[in-house]
Design brief:
Chain lengths: 105, 350
């Protein structure tokens, strides 16, 4: 399958926050379950656009991306397929990568 | 001579009638006031709502305790007299707002009140919606347009709702650095997440039992002296009480090391520095350090965390000040204060 671009601000929410589904309407777990998991198997590459969002808390990012690594049996797929765009905050990608690396265990 | 006597008598008679009517009127006013308040238990608010000064804090906490004592005795009809209130600070106001709002929510109280005589404080009550909560009708006056009234904003909730930060932050977009705006959003939403996941893990110990899913938070913002102040409050266990639950091993070693010196303020400081969470999973529990990191992107900024008896203050440059009060707020209040650029304040003035 072809590549897919997910624009968090437009397709999910410009105000993502919280870790678990029970925390609130736009949590990291919700993003992972509804956007990342269904698409990662079906596409060669997932390009996540992080721009246009008001900000990201560590709880959201860790649960969405670190949680994705913990959730999948073959975590190397995540590192191979997921790519990011972040023109507004260049340090954000490093932060997400550190959560993904930390989740490898 | 007779005529003079007559007019004097007549004058005296009329004066006495006037006096009688005046007294009757004032009596009827007092009776109406008494009748209006009959069946209500009266509590008087102190002159200043402030939590960072020793004496003022004692009075605020004693005031809130007296409300709790009435509620503990099963009294639901309370009359709060705010007439003597002259000055409100954001952290003191949010504390009183949060306490009354929570008690009202859980116990379904009938709270009435006498409004403050101070015209500015009256308008602040209106601006943050407090007058509605305490059922006190306050008319809008020109004071509502003053900067120290019009810039107050209030939000509250029980979930992590990033959208509620929008109303506070969108006004400053284009005026403050994007990185600062993002950091403030992160700080506020992480505070909501902390309230949701950590603050209410056990009962608070104030005889007020409520459902497990009631995890309220309150947030105020205010512009003051060229700075944006954002205040976040939860009425949970407080950081010094969640630390032994979230990090039992770490807490035990701290206790061994510090003994009685492990005060509430020291516990807050330690909680800020550790990154491991209460589940002992290394990926959780970074929220508090992110809440504090907000000030990294703003000059002349600081953050104060008040939790139970402790006060932790971090200024830009890493200067940490700890202080312990004798009275506890039984909860946590985070105050961010960031400087607004001259361009923003001068644009407003123009």
């Amino acid at each position: 399958m072809l590549n897919m671009i997910i624009n968090i601000a437009k397709e999910f929410s410009p105000f993502p926050a919280g870790r678990f589904l029970t925390d609130g309407p736009y949590s990291g777990e919700k993003f992972r379950e509804e956007f990342l998991i269904p698409n990662i198997e079906r596409h060669e590459e997932l390009l996540i656009n992080l721009d246009g969002v008001m900000g990201f808390g560590s709880s959201f990012l860790e649960e969405a991306f670190g949680g994705l690594v913990r959730r999948l049996d073959n975590s190397s797929v995540v590192f191979k397929k997921i790519k990011f765009i972040s023109n507004e905050d260049p340090f954000l990608i490093d932060e997400i990568n550190s959560y993904m690396e930390g989740a490898k265990g | 001579m007779k005529i003079t006597d007559f007019s004097r008598r007549e004058y005296l008679r009329r004066a006495s009638l006037r006096e009688m009517r005046k007294r009757e009127k004032s009596n009827s006013k007092a009776i109406a006031k008494r009748e209006q308040r009959s069946g209500f238990f009266e509590i008087k608010c102190p002159r200043t709502l402030r939590l960072t000064a020793v004496d003022a804090r004692k009075k605020v906490i004693s005031f809130v305790d007296s409300i709790h004592r009435h509620v503990d005795k099963g009294r639901k009809r309370l009359w709060i007299d705010f007439s003597g209130l002259e000055k409100v600070y954001a952290e003191g106001m949010i504390f009183v707002y949060a306490e009354i709002s929570r008690l009202n929510n859980v116990k379904k109280l009938d709270v009435r009140s006498t409004p403050p005589k101070d015209k500015v404080v009256r308008q602040v009550f209106n601006k943050i919606g407090f007058s509605k909560l305490i059922k006190c009708s306050i008319k809008r006056t020109p004071e509502s347009n003053r900067d120290d009234v019009a810039t107050w904003f209030c939000a509250s909730g029980e979930e992590v709702e990033g959208e509620k930060c929008k109303n506070i932050l969108e006004k400053y977009q284009g005026h403050i650095a994007t990185s600062l705006s993002r950091d403030l959003f992160t700080g506020m939403t992480e505070a909501m997440t902390n309230a949701r996941q950590h603050a209410y893990i056990k009962e608070r110990g104030d005889n007020l039992i409520h459902t497990d899913y009631y995890k309220p938070w309150w947030m105020f913002s205010q512009e003051i002296n060229g700075k944006l102040k954002v205040v976040f409050c939860d009425l949970g266990l407080g950081i010094p009480n969640t630390l032994p639950i979230s990090h039992p091993g770490f807490f035990k070693s701290l206790l061994r090391q510090l003994g009685k010196d492990l005060t509430d303020s020291r516990a807050i400081e330690e909680a800020v520095t550790i990154t491991r969470s209460r589940t002992e999973q290394s990926h959780r529990g970074k929220g508090l350090s992110q809440i504090v990191a907000t000030i990294d992107n703003s000059e002349e900024s600081d953050i104060i965390i008040l939790s139970n008896k402790g006060s932790y203050r971090l200024a830009k440059g890493g200067d940490v000040r700890l202080f312990d009060f004798s009275t506890s707020i039984k909860g946590t209040i985070v105050c961010w204060q960031v400087s607004l650029p001259d361009s923003f304040t001068s644009a407003k003035a123009a």
